[in-house]
Amino acid sequence: MQITRHPQNPIVVPGLFEWRKATVFNPAVIIDNGKFYMIERTAGSLTPCKNFLGLLESEDGVNFTHVKDEPIVTPDMLGFPYGSVQDPRIVKIDDTFYLNYALRPCAMNYYPTGVGIPERSIPEYPDGWGEDPGHWLTRSSILTSKDLINWEFLSDTTPLDINDRDNILFPEKINGKFVLLRRPEEYVGEQYGTEKAAMWITYSEDLIHWEEPKLLAKAGPGDWEQKKIGGSTPPVKTDKGWLVLYHGVDYDTVYRVGALLLDLENPEKIIARTNNFIMEPETYYEKFGFQLPNVIFPTGNVVKDDLLYIYYGVTDTAIALATVPLDELVEYVLDETT
Predict the structure, then answer these.
(1) Are 307 and 323 in contact (CB under 8 A)?
(2) Is the pTM of this model over 0.85?
(3) Could you give the angle at the alpha carbon of 300 between the alpha carbons of 216 and 208, nearest 5°?
């Protein structure tokens, strides 16, 4: 499978403003009225690594500039002044933008080692912040907007007493219901049908009340997804099914990318799934960075002129772009499935 990395990679890098001085990564991307919009995850420092969301725009999907010189979403806006808002995914249904995000009520300190997982410590916060173990759980929620700049809280999509992230909405209702992918960390064990963190699917009529999730896909037998898997990008509708990119993590904490095709009318049915990864860290910017080495982490994809644009975080440091003809990728997923 030939997926082409853009020669200008990484296309978005840290700097320019204080709130994105240390790192930018894991963006949400959407095309609206012919223009590309990117919502980046940023941090102004690594100690603590308090994350914000910024908004950029582009005519060509490669050269992005900021719409605003300040974040559009901060943990303070969400009621968590010592928190961290992370990993946005975006879809537009009718005239409304829906932004999935993960929020940790307290941010960690990170000390990059340059050779592996960063060392971490817990900052000292006033007024009891961080003292309860629940303060460190990752919750997942939805914001809504009409203009991509002004956002309103809509709902928590998962229970607040577990770690749950990689929540991703489908871009349209299916059989009259909204559909959401999840990755609950604690849903592991015999009673859940999976021994490792996996992808789950759930439904809602109003985006507020969600049905009990169903197990969608477990970590496969391949070495590249030994540790866990999770949804990466919003599903893309094709005539062969919903195309979903997902990430797999091995025991060395290397992040790679696979793909699923889900039935158009019954998205909990997997039509096809790659046996092997379709992307892995290869270039210097995918192997070495400020934080976590050997990471490719897609969180945004859009289609223009039958070409799939894949936007992905690299080493929790910068944002890169790769492209592939959509039909070729779909056929590859179908052919590679056994």
Answers:
(1) yes
(2) yes
(3) 55
